[in-house]
Write a structure and sequence with these properties.
- Pfam families: Lyase_aromatic.
- Helices cover 55% and strands 6% of the residues.
- It is mainly alpha-helical.
- The protein has a three-stranded antiparallel sheet. The chain has a two-stranded parallel sheet with strand order 1-2. It has a two-stranded antiparallel sheet with strand order 3-5.
- Helix 1 links the parallel strand 1 and strand 2.
């Protein structure tokens, strides 16, 4: 049962989480903690009890030989074929192996770890019928650092990615352990783990559900939320060095168009530029600013609204039962219901919307960073060049931002409007949610670079002023300068952008600003 606790949505605490005890609702930050930061996983008593209770129903159904999909019948188009008890382990094993058919370069390890963690949460809902043995192995692999190799192409929304993880559970497939790629059986042995034999329904459960959509979507959404809030910091820095006016941030303007995120964004910019000598000196310098500065509350606010909606969707999905069939307790012992909570439309559509919102943020960031290097509008040295003549200054990072934005625009085409016809038309509709989640995950990686270039430019621009920026933007400048020096002469640029992009992803830019302002609104 989904509890009210899910509504207490939070994020940004992932790095501080070292252990997750499964049994109650989980959050997006716990997914990131396990997937990206290596938090350990344990089972609570409640988790174990409900898994064992539900598994007892499956064992009884299997002995009674009722016609229940995936328990006593074949799978997919073979739903109408009875499978004898002695053959059910063979069917479950074959099901996992036959579905291990995604191809191409592997998904990032944090994506695979996120899927493994979401599997544990979904499979332990008390409605799937999994036994504890494969769940204990899955947790053991996470804690030991055994990561299945999951090729990254060929999913219609579920099935294939998950099967590659399942293959390692049975000692097949490939995995990475200790930095080396090896056979799944070797990786398990090297880490002190043993493969399992999948029993009735377990192979079906492994490849069913919304595991990949939810897990990869959660990672992409978490990064997008961080980027969206950091965009307020970057936008405020650009507004300041471009001698912008805070008139467009006036609370009265926001109050007559009372979108919450718009008002909160305007408030953030005012707080970020509080006590800025630059802003105070150039107040009224222009009647009004270009739209990329003047519309920060409107565009940033709209994007945050979409991302917040996506966070609620992912939070519900993380704590849902998404198998087929689902097992329920009844007065006379239990019932299996065939449906399709395994459909990935909720998270898929949320991810499609989120990448559009993220691209909007990146679009505005690219326009602001371009203004800082364009001396025709910036009133700053051309290309923020400290030593013109033989140097290009910061001319070319804007080219990179334009190229990155072009990639993001391509990713913004919705995936969930597509359809595929599979399983001899038994599955005549597919959500394509996995593609949507991957687009968001990839798009967030690109967006952080665009934002890093805006921050790079803003910090360089600050260095041309002999009057003080705001304490908050100076704190960001000083954090950046710990790793990225002022560009005095042309240099190898990529490492500078990578360093700031890492600060964006890890929340260090935001933390630097908030060390002055306190927590900013989202």
């Amino acid at each position: 049962m989904i509890t009210e606790e899910i509504k207490k949505i939070s994020w940004r605490q992932a790095p501080s989480i070292s252990k997750v005890v499964l049994g109650g609702p989980i959050s997006i930050e716990e997914v990131v903690a396990v997937a990206h930061h290596g938090a350990k996983v344990e089972f609570g008593e409640e988790y174990t009890e409900r898994v064992n209770r539900c598994r007892a129903h499956v064992d009884r159904f299997s002995k009674e030989e009722k016609a229940i999909y995936g328990i006593t019948t074949g799978l997919g188009e073979n739903w109408n074929r009875f499978i004898s008890q002695e053959d059910r382990e063979i069917v479950q094993r074959n099901h996992v192996l036959s579905h291990s058919c995604s191809v191409g370069e592997p998904l990032e390890e944090e994506c695979v770890r996120a899927m493994m963690f979401v599997m544990l949460q979904h499979f332990g809902s008390g409605h799937t019928g999994m036994s504890m043995a494969p769940l204990e192995l899955l947790a053991g692999m996470l804690n030991a650092g055994v990561v299945p190799v999951v090729p990254g192409h060929g999913s219609v929304g579920y099935i294939c990615y998950e099967a590659h993880i399942g293959s390692v559970l049975i000692g097949e497939g490939q995995a990475v352990y200790g930095g080396r790629r090896m056979k799944g059986s070797e990786a398990l042995k090297a880490s002190g783990l043993d493969p399992v034999v999948l029993s009735t329904k377990e192979g079906l459960t492994i490849v069913s559900g919304t595991t990949s959509v939810t897990a990869i979507g959660a990672l992409g959404l978490y990064d997008s939320l961080m980027i969206a809030q950091t965009a307020d910091v970057a936008g405020a820095m650009s507004l300041e060095v471009l001698k912008g006016t805070l008139m467009a941030m006036d609370p009265r303007i926001q109050e007559v168009r009372p979108h919450r995120h718009q008002g909160d964004t305007a408030s953030n910019v005012r707080r970020l530029l509080e006590d800025s000598e630059i802003e105070r000196t150039y107040r009224g310098h222009r009647v009004q600013d270009a739209l990329s500065l003047r519309c920060i509350p409107q565009l940033h606010g709209a994007a945050k609204k979409i991302l917040t909606d996506g966070l609620e969707t992912v939070s519900v999905e993380l704590n849902s039962s998404v198998d087929n069939p689902l097992i329920f307790d009844t007065e006379d012992g239990g019932e299996a219901l065939m449906g399709c909570n395994a459909d990935g439309s909720y998270v898929g559509m949320a991810c499609d919307c989120a990448i559009i919102a993220l691209t909007g943020l990146a679009k505005m960031s690219e326009r602001r960073l371009d203004r800082t290097v364009n001396h025709h509008v910036s009133e700053l040295p051309a290309f923020l060049n400290a030593n013109p003549g033989f140097n290009n200054g910061l001319m070319i990072p804007q080219y990179a931002a334009a190229g990155l934005l072009g990639e993001m625009k391509t990713l913004s085409h919705p995936s969930t409007v597509d359809n595929g016809f599979t399983c001899a038309n038994q599955e005549d509709y597919t959500s394509m949610g996995a593609n949507a989640a991957i687009k968001l995950y990839r798009g967030a990686s690109l967006a952080k670079y665009i934002l890093s270039i805006e921050i790079l430019n803003a910090c360089q621009a600050q260095d041309f002023y002999d009057i003080a920026p705001s304490p908050a933007t100076k704190a960001v400048h000083d954090r950046v300068r710990q790793e990225v020096p002022k560009v005095e002469q042309d240099t190898f640029m990529s490492p500078l952008m990578e360093a700031i992009a890492r600060m964006v992803k890890d929340g260090e830019i935001l933390s630097a600003a908030e060390s002055v302002t306190g927590p900013l609104e989202f």
